[in-house]
Design brief:
about 500 residues, alpha+beta, 10-stranded antiparallel sheet, 15 helices, 14 strands, binds protoporphyrin IX containing FE
Length: about 500
């Protein structure tokens, strides 16, 4: 049998031998998103270890979708032969492995020790190494008496089928002596053009590492790969499952999954976006650029490094991904701190992050994100628009698969997003996800320093697009996204789960 080449993408249609076995043994959603619009994240705590093992085995046998069956069924749907069915995925936390008396994969130990739990009390500063403040998280994510052992990701094409799938899962969990600690719903948002968007109204999930040859080949014609190569090797996400049964271990892989509930204060974000447009002296259609300078793309997806205005006449702006920043080194078109530039400077750096997030709406919004009325001036914005925008209860269920939490998620979030000095110089923190060390913000002496010489918060923006004539200083943009809780998991191979004995 031919060996699996982890250093390259994989053609799933041509997969045979070990590669085909690998796709049968791997859980879905890792190599490619499951694509369902409705999700329930069911967080559970195990009881007796023997019952927990039985539960995991039954879930794997009856519910979990393999990578191969996910790909085959979405192919059938595309050809019109089938509709999307239910989808299930299981991931175990560090304490989850401990609860079934199994050693956790090494990477979980690394991140797991940083999060809230027994170690939290010992953490004098009350913050984690990546500037999270667990004391401010939702109770379900920081209860040392009820640690989250596993996440069941249940996805379906509509709310009704998600409901019945979740009910069946809950029954099974209870029948096996485990508890449902929390259920978090997520739901895909779309704009009028049909693009997937997040709550600030921007097209999301455009730039993803592509690990399947079929997805890479589909980027023909307009979506060339001359400046940016979206193809990524399988080892961007896959690591061998260390505890899969020995007889099949060479074809058993898993992935580290990060889950973060990120609340979005849409009102404060839009307010700041409005002020920024004023400060930059933008008028008419140009005002949209303020947000694009923060995100790196206009709402429709147009990269701001390519254009000073959204390509509203192009229906496919949410697919444009063949660009880099070589002609924009100084950031006169796309600031070097803009979210997508911080997260991917497209400079040959090889680190990639596979995102599988979905928005949530714990309380229904008054208006969908792309129906925010236009305001004439700040007073009009405050009076007429702001009250319609949510300050809490909506956001993103950020999920990302990694082959290494340390060199992927941790690096993206902390070494780049939270670091005002990266990339080279002083671009400021990431305006969407960046946060400074809370102790530094709390300490009065540092607060003072922040407003004067400490370059942590204020990002600078060139006043004119594509010109370095003048710079608007201290365009402080941050604090509109708050971490409400999360956990680190490992999504094991199917044979690991089905081989668990009581
Ligand atoms: C509420 C929080 C967040 C919002 C609203 C948000 C929004 C967005 C949007 C609108 C895009 C552009 C779409 C695209 O290029 O695919 C994007 C891209 C991206 N985001 Fe985020 N994001 C959030 C959190 C995060 C976090 C926590 C990380 C990582 C730690 C992250 C990493 C990335 C990456 C890697 C890209 C792709 C950049 C590229 O390849 O050009 N995002 N995000």
């Amino acid at each position: 049998m031919t060996a699996i080449n982890l250093g390259a993408p994989l053609s799933w249609r041509n997969a045979e031998g070990c590669s085909l076995e690998m796709l049968k043994n791997l859980q879905g959603n890792i190599l490619k998103g499951h694509g369902r619009s409705h999700v329930a994240c069911v967080f559970i705590g195990f009881g007796d270890p023997r019952q927990a093992r039985h539960l995991l085995r039954t879930l794997a046998e009856r519910f979990v979708t393999s990578a191969l069956s996910q790909l085959r069924s979405s192919d059938a749907r595309r050809k019109g032969c089938a509709t999307d069915g239910d989808f299930c995925h299981i991931a175990l936390s560090l304490s989850g492995y401990e609860a079934i008396n199994c050693q956790a994969p090494a990477g979980l130990d690394y991140m797991g020790r940083l999060r809230v739990g027994p170690d939290y009390a010992e953490h004098a500063a009350g913050t984690t190494e990546i500037n999270d403040v667990p004391s401010e998280w939702e109770q379900a994510f920081r209860d040392p008496d009820n640690p989250i052992h596993a996440l069941i990701l249940a996805a379906a094409p509509d709310a009704c089928s998600r409901g019945s799938l979740t009910r069946r899962l809950i029954d099974l969990v209870h029948d096996n002596g485990a508890r449902v600690l929390h259920i978090q719903h997520g739901q895909q948002l779309r704009n009028r053009r049909g693009s997937a968007i997040e709550h600030f109204g921007y097209a999301d999930s455009i730039s993803q590492p592509l690990m399947l040859q079929e997805d890479i080949d589909a980027l023909a014609g307009d979506y060339r790969r001359t400046l940016w190569e979206p193809a990524a090797p399988l080892n961007t996400v896959l690591v061998q499952d260390p505890w899969a049964p020995e007889r099949v271990r060479s074809t058993c892989f898993g992935s580290y999954l990060v889950f973060r509930k990120l609340e979005q204060n849409v009102r404060s974000f839009k307010e700041r976006e409005f002020e920024l447009a004023d400060n930059l002296g933008l008028h008419g259609d140009d005002r949209e650029r303020a947000g694009a300078l923060v995100m790196g793309r206009f709402k429709d997806g147009t990269p701001v490094t390519l254009s000073s205005r959204a390509w509203s006449d192009r229906h496919d702006a949410d697919k444009i991904n063949d660009f880099d920043y070589e002609q924009d080194y100084a950031g006169t078109r796309c600031p070097r701190h803009a979210h997508i530039r911080k997260m991917n400077p497209r400079d040959g750096r090889m680190d990639r992050l596979v995102r599988r997030g979905i928005p949530y709406e714990d309380k229904m919004r008054l208006l969908p994100p792309d129906e925010t009325p236009l305001a004439g001036n700040t007073r009009d914005f405050q009076r007429r628009v702001a009250p319609l925008l949510p300050e809490r209860d909506v956001g993103l269920l950020f999920m990302a698969y990694n082959s290494s939490l340390e060199t992927q998620f941790r690096r993206f979030q902390h070494e780049w997003g939270n670091d005002p000095f990266k990339p080279r110089g002083q671009p400021g923190i990431d305006p969407i996800i960046g946060s400074l060390d809370p102790d530094m913000i709390r300490a009065p002496v540092n607060r003072l320093a922040r407003n004067t010489s400490y370059p942590g918060m204020p990002q600078d923006i060139f006043l004119q697009w594509n010109s370095n004539a003048a710079v608007a200083l201290n365009c402080e943009f941050s604090g509109h996204v708050t971490m409400k809780g999360g956990e680190y998991f490992f999504s094991p191979s199917l044979p690991f789960l089905t081989d668990l004995i009581e």
